[in-house]
Amino acid sequence: MPRGNGKTEKPSQRSTARTMHLNLRAGERVYINGAVVRTDRKVTLELMNDATFLLEGHVLQAEEATTPLRQLYFAAQTMLIDPAQAALARTIFETLRGGILAATSESMIVSGLTTAHTFVEAGRPFEALKVIRALYKAEAALIDGAQPAPILPATLQPSDRIEPRRPASRTHRTVPNPDLKVSRMAEEVSP
């Protein structure tokens, strides 16, 4: 079995579960099912069962949520990082999404938010995070008064029918900040 390649094994190679290898640098954090793990040296972790995780590089800190889309990203991220606060984070996500849709008719952002909403409704907030990150440039262009990119990349478009992720196939790279509290987020985002 190859180690450290960051890919999952094919189901035929391992009958009991899918595995995921995470290569981490010294001092890097990874958030796994709401727990924060920090390494003291370069290490490869093998996740041998279904787990939700974020790598530190994809975690948005509360103070970085300075635009509507970044606040939306933060809410979706909280659904992954803090499962106990997922219901509140989902409510905040929907409120923010509605506000953004009311404020813009930019087709790329509207399409992206529809896709992100579909992923969240299907219980797949990790995929929603990817879609929202892809919209940052279009949002910046709107804020700066320039024309945004014309279309959402095809790789971020949902299929015709998005199914909720099954436990055996969920392999998310998600990294939350343990110090972040949804209640703080709600205070910062509330009108």
Automatic annotation (TrEMBL):
Q: Where is this region: Disordered?
A: 153-191
Taxonomy, superkingdom? Bacteria
Keyword field: Bacterial flagellum biogenesis, Repressor, RNA-binding
Compositionally biased, Basic and acidic residues: which spans?
181-191
Q: What name has this protein been given in UniProt?
A: Flagellum biosynthesis repressor protein FlbT
Question: Which organism does this record belong to?
Answer: Methylorubrum suomiense
